[in-house]
Design goal:
Elements (H helix, E strand, L loop, with lengths): L10 E2 L3 H12 L16 E2 L1 H11 L11 H10 L1 H11 L7 H4 L18
Antiparallel strand pairs: 1-2
Helix pairs in contact: 3-4
Length: 119
């Protein structure tokens, strides 16, 4: 896949071990008023940073060039399905773990620190 431009968007990630730990942590709590708990590694990542981390994980060369945003915008205008995908790529998908952290849960892993384990 060609290198994507930096969109300055924010995305949340979670290591699977932390996700499992959070499920066990919540299952052991009694009388919780809140029914939904969001857990993240606490750091926001851009789509570009995720792309680069995955490329490094798979031993791919990171080119110096990137697909220009103008090209993506032009392609988005030409095709509705592509437009939705580009919009999704550019949007924020950022969440807060504050509710579960207030109960004492802390994650152990960052996405960028553990890219060797990414499948």
């Amino acid at each position: 896949f060609p290198p994507i431009p930096e969109f300055q968007n924010r995305r949340s990630m979670i290591h699977v071990d932390d996700l499992i730990r959070s499920l066990i942590f919540i299952s052991k709590k009694n009388n919780l008023e809140e029914k939904i708990f969001i857990v993240t590694d606490g750091k926001d990542y851009s789509a570009c940073e995720i792309y680069e981390t995955l490329a490094l994980r798979y031993g791919k060369f990171l080119p110096k060039w990137r697909v220009p945003k103008k090209i993506l915008s032009l392609l988005a205008k030409m095709n509705f399905n592509f437009s939705r995908k580009i919009k999704k790529l550019m949007e924020d998908e950022c969440y807060s773990s504050s509710r579960i952290e207030q109960l004492g849960f802390k994650t152990k892993y960052l996405f960028t620190d553990n890219y060797e384990e990414i499948i």
